[in-house]
Design brief:
single chain; alpha/beta; Rossmann fold; 7-stranded mixed beta sheet; 4-stranded antiparallel beta sheet; globular
Length: 313
């Protein structure tokens, strides 16, 4: 099969919504080239492992690359993607240069192009994310290692929004808890919750590819007896007061659409961890959660992203 590489020169602020647009359009894998990765200071306490080549990054802005199969519908698909990205301006999202280029790649290039950006990363006091094709020896005896193959789903576990979610799970999940992971992607948050002692984890995603990928990763990390994955739209049909912790690493606009459902599903004194929020949307999400019966217990910041730990009154 032939593949087309769609390259979008944009801003860091627009990376998450553009990735979502590409996902919805059927993109098979995404690569993010952010020059900030070359200069940002790393926290040595977590021992991140990086092998970055400056030639792989733009001089300014961020490049998002997606891979689409070459077929008779490719032109229409690309046009729809461009239109959706342009519409982000309506939501006050800076799309930067918004330069879109297309080139053809062969099967082998497509399958391996994004892997060079993905190395073992220790993201918290407890967790290290390790791609399945890398060898890694734990540094500490109590280190928890998550093996991950993102496949065609989104979420390598190393994006700031995911890192903040995992750190928040460390602070909220207790042994025996019931956890719900909304928009699970690769399943990394469900794996972390299970490893932290949750008795039951239910993961949901609307995309069937994400559901398949998450199931494989749960089995790979030997937590499939604790965590299950199903195709579902957010919290539709989930029973009332059934979760000690609900975690959602999705766009702020989506979080705002189902705060009432979160309040219905989370037990009294239970937690909602919300991530994927850009700074400009922070207060909107906070206000919505407060109005639905939550109190904001902690705000976590990383780069331009925000995660909230909210407790149900």
């Amino acid at each position: 099969m032939r593949w087309s590489e769609l390259s979008i020169h944009t801003t860091n602020e627009a990376v998450e919504p553009i990735s979502h647009i590409l996902h919805e359009a059927g993109a098979s894998g995404v690569v993010i080239e952010d020059p900030f990765e070359l200069i940002k200071e790393r926290q040595d306490q977590f021992g991140e492992i990086y092998q970055l080549d400056p030639n792989d990054y733009p001089e300014e802005g961020v490049i998002v690359k997606a891979y689409l199969p070459v077929n008779s519908f490719l032109g229409e698909t690309v046009d729809a993607i461009k239109e959706s990205i342009n519409n982000l301006i309506i939501h006050n999202i800076d799309i930067g240069l918004n330069k879109v280029t297309i080139s053809e790649v062969n099967e082998e290039e497509w399958a391996t192009a994004w892997k060079k950006y993905y190395n073992p990363v220790k993201i918290s006091e407890k967790f290290t994310i390790v791609p399945t094709w890398e060898e890694y020896t734990p540094v500490n005896s109590d280190e928890l290692m998550i093996e991950l193959d993102p496949g065609m789903a989104f979420g390598t576990g190393t994006h700031p929004t995911t890192v903040m979610c995992i750190q928040a799970l460390e602070r909220t999940v207790k042994k025996g808890d019931r956890v719900i992971d909304v928009g699970t992607g690769s399943g990394v948050l469900s794996i972390a919750a299970a490893m932290l002692g949750a008795e039951e984890v239910r993961a949901y995603d609307l995309d069937e590819i994400a559901v398949t990928t998450a199931k494989l990763n749960l089995k790979l990390n030997k937590v499939h007896h604790i965590a299950t994955v199903a195709q579902n739209n957010l919290l539709d049909g989930v029973e009332e007061s059934s979760a000690d912790v609900v975690v959602a690493n999705i766009l702020a606009e989506v979080i705002l659409r189902f705060t009432d459902d979160v309040a219905r599903v989370v037990k009294e004194k239970g937690y909602f961890i919300a991530s994927g929020i850009i700074q400009q949307k922070k207060e909107l999400v906070k206000d919505a959660l407060i109005q639905t019966g939550f109190e904001i217990e902690e705000t976590i910041l990383m780069e331009d992203w925000v995660a909230l730990i909210a407790k149900r009154k």
